[in-house]
Fold this protein.
Amino acid sequence: MTTPSGLWPLYRSIGPIIFWLLLTRGSTGTFGVNGRGLTDSSKGSQGCIPDTTKCCQSKGVSQLCVRKLCDYRRPPNEFEVFEVASECPHSLTAIASCLADQRDHMPCCSRRAKGADDLLCLHLCNGSKTTVDLNRWEEYKAYVACLSFNIQPMYQCFAEGYRKSPYPPVNLTAVSVGQRSAHLQWKPPLALSSLVKKYRVQCRSSDMLFLKEGHTSSTFLLIDDLLPNTKYAITVTAEGEDFTARSLPSDEITIVTKGLTPEVEAYQEEMETADGFTQTLACRIKVHGRRQSVPSVQWVRRWTKGENFHPIASQGDLSKSYSADIFLSSVEATWLLYTTTLTIYSVRATDYALYKCQVRTEDGEDTKEIRLRPLHTIHIPRSPPNITKCCLKEQLEGACLATCKGSSLDLDFAGLFLADFQVHKCSNELSKMVHCSLGAISYGPCCLRRKVPQVCMALCDGTLKLPTAADSYASCLPYLSSVMECHMESRALIPSPPDNLRLVTSNQVSTVIIEWSEVVDAKLYIVYYRIVGEGARDEWERKTSTANVIVLNRLPQQTRFEVVVLAASLAGSSEPSRSLFFSTMPRSN
């Protein structure tokens, strides 16, 4: 195939096949090299037709680009689109604005689009900015392909839209804004208002998650069912005989709906701790709406019922004894959850009091009280911890039971998030495993002090189900180190398991004496014993001792027993000791 000398660079850049396609399409006379201009059927009333050439000139578009692109009656042919794409990239936004003429031609352009997978050039139809970088060869080729296939029908859509599509309304204002509604009004388009048949109002939240639409033939509308305390961007579009004949949106206005009074609840209303421990009090604050605005919080306390509450910050050195904080712990569909904490370091007798978190926003205030009491009682479990038994009781999936072994579950939190763990769907069972691991211990206050979000709190207190969706599940990964720190912090306060259990009696008929090595910081020892063997019931008896020795009496003769011992303090109880087995003797005649 031979080519004119002037087209040789184009031939070399796009190749013979595309060049031949363009050349042969152009020869048909439909909208190629030989097909110039629009048919008479696309012409309309001159009163509706904008002077797009003059518009481009006023925006500083070069003469070449004005000549090639700005006359809707003379679209560029397939060869000229290469020149346009090369010479006019910086003027495309201005040209698009003039060609659209405040009318949205996109429905027509999209309906007639053809030939290109990426319709990158259709931004011309609604006057928007181009999203491509024409300095990049691949994007340049895609843009040119879009123009070459669609430039003629696009310009036909412009001509049709000028005749039947209205201009946008003006002077959009919010007359009043409530908690869940807004009263809006506007004025008809400055020109061709007779084309308007109705208006479409769009209210979109600033995070783009909520869209509320309304329709009216009037120039005012009450939009309801909005979220309180939420920022909305509002526009109005004028529509003609049908949805496809429409203006571009009006100038955008922004409103913020009024908020509701915050709702406060205590993480725990009654809390216990011991002298010298660190304890964290927490309140959860529900703020309706989507606009993030941190509430104001003041922690106060009092010691007796008749006295006033006193601000915490005014008592002593806040930085050494107390620490107050607040963080966003959950973002829900229609509300935000904040958590405020008050941490008391090295608790003293004067810290046992009635505390109150006072929460205030610009829309109201709420309070909640928390009682902090001294801890005097050591918790005694009904039976020694048995993770396998707990997991079976929780009906854990069979493939996941391998993680529940023995008397303790030393959770490898990072391992629980690995792919092979999730392959067996064990992530769905994680909340059950955490529940069995925690037993009577809760790391909740510690995790809240470390700003662990609501969705991950099941790792700390087992009270909520963990997320099973992959994205939500993975969102807890950044907080695993905080959870592990709380785990270690709590375990560090608990005594170690007793060791060296042994019998110290010479007559094992119905009474035995058992002793073990003394455990540092243990205030109480809990001794569990049960009958083992065929037909034995899986039930533990228990006794306590403040010393490292115990006497078990009234035991049945000729019976085999298992004994384990836990060391306990106010902070909690240890894991079980190793089992000691013994058998009682028959009574001698």
